[in-house]
Amino acid sequence: MKEIRILSPQGMLGYGYPSSSFEEGLQASPDVIAVDAGSTDGGPHRLGLGMGGVSRYATKKDLQPLILAAKERNIPLIIGSAGGSGAGKRVDWLLDIVKEIAKEQGLRLKVAAIYADIDKQWLYQRWQEGKVDPVDSAPPLSAESIKETTALVAQMGVEPYLEALKEKPDIIIGGRTYDPVMSAALPILNGMDPGLAFHLGKILECGALAATPGTAKDGMLGILRDGHFLVQPLNPERKCTAQSVAAHTMYEKSHPYYLHGPGGMLDLSECRFEQVDERTVKVSGSRFIPSESYTVKVEGVKQDGFRTVLICGIRDPYLLQQLDEVLAQVQDEVRSYFDQTSFQLFFKVYGRDGVMGAWEPEREALGHEVGLVAEVVAGTQEMADSICAYTRSLLMHFDYKGRVSTAGNLALPFAPPEFSAGPVFSFSVYHAVTIDDPLSLFPVKYVELRGE
Amino acid sequence: MGQEIRQKEKKTLAELAAVIRSKNAGPFEITFDILFDNACYYRRVKESGVLTREHICQLYSARAEDVVCLEYFDQALGIKVTLRRHHPSGSAGERDTYGAQQHVPLLTIEIPDFFEQGT
User: Fold this and answer.
1) How many domains does chain A have?
2) Which ipTM did the prediction report?
3) Least confident span in A1-5, A190-194, A196-200
4) Which of A36, A162, A248, A399 sits at 20 to 30 Å (Cα–Cα) from A79?
């Protein structure tokens, strides 16, 4: 094939996009529409609770024009990391939305759903065999952390998508997926260079974020050819510059030009970015270097308890001057009152070091008021609520040295003042696992929808 | 007199760079991108030797082993610094799930002008 044109309508399904941009993209006769639908960035609760970062309403609103356009042109629509976390129940959640659209629009659709859920026992076995290594700065895995883990997915590479594409589905809904894959799959299926395909995918998966002005709420067109690719935003008010595209290559990765993915590494140290016209950039020299053994990244979360949050304000200058001592004393008194209970109590002082904590270099600077957040994490919601309420009443009437405002120390903006925030999760697994077969972990299910 | 001129020619990183941002790089790291749209400014920062691992450690009260990357990417006119997080993103006690507001100490790093170096 001489060239493949990839339309990325937006950086995240459910973020919205201008329909004029999407129309512009369709004018360019794309061979595939590719869109990302998930990430670990929003936090571990998405995988833990089986929830997404965008609503069903927004997902359906964004999805319908993509399905209609793809079907009309007989090109595949490829969606990766379905429903935020890419867990099986989120693949089914997205499949359900597709079913609804098919029914309402009277469409016949062949859908390939690819699952990425991982069995705990399987991970434990691989770990015992020494086939598990931390990714980036994750701590080493232990039998304990595997045992505590409540949800696990593996980030699939391009291979399951290549299998699914051979069956010529109208739509692929992928579970947890390496971000560049949705764009790279069709080119790689057609024998094009994987280095260029993955690099292009890395740029397209964020929508128009690599353009200037950049946003994930708009789209881009990628054209992959022999030896190079071109990228151009769909919205005439944006442009790609050599600098904006090069800069985006570095985005959200630990290293600027060595990017690890399933089965190998993208080496961008020698790639070139050239301005072709005012809005288009040409990229060449991206290389994919397959690794000796095939690894996939496995992501898992564990529940650390339940959270209750108190938000309040402090304006009294005498209290502000000795805030740290007061908070330390309150922390001690709460601990001694809830003697036998294991819990965590965090204070965040907004207006001082609320955002950066221990990284804050200007700890001494203090405004004339601060926002104080108390966060309690305990074994049950009831216990977290109890501890947070006790903390609030103690703080409210705490008798610090030199106090003149004896009616109360806190400005409470909400009644009731505490919020039960539900289960709290943390990432417990973020590890590369060596596998023999890149397909074996990711079963594909084909569904024929006959909308009437 | 010479001293006064030098003072004027120092610029902060925020004055020289087009983008200074921080972002998650997976749940266990936060990465900082310093990007330029002016090759001369990029070279000035790169050749100043001001931005070092030691400097980052000092700014963020970090340990040397927490700085997992400090690299220059010439084609992108970009500098990348990656720091290990204290705890995984989004867990109990979190302050910045996306790591999007941790870039601020970089803004005011002072970069001397070319000709001042070596004097």
Assistant:
1) 2
2) 0.93
3) A1-5
4) A248
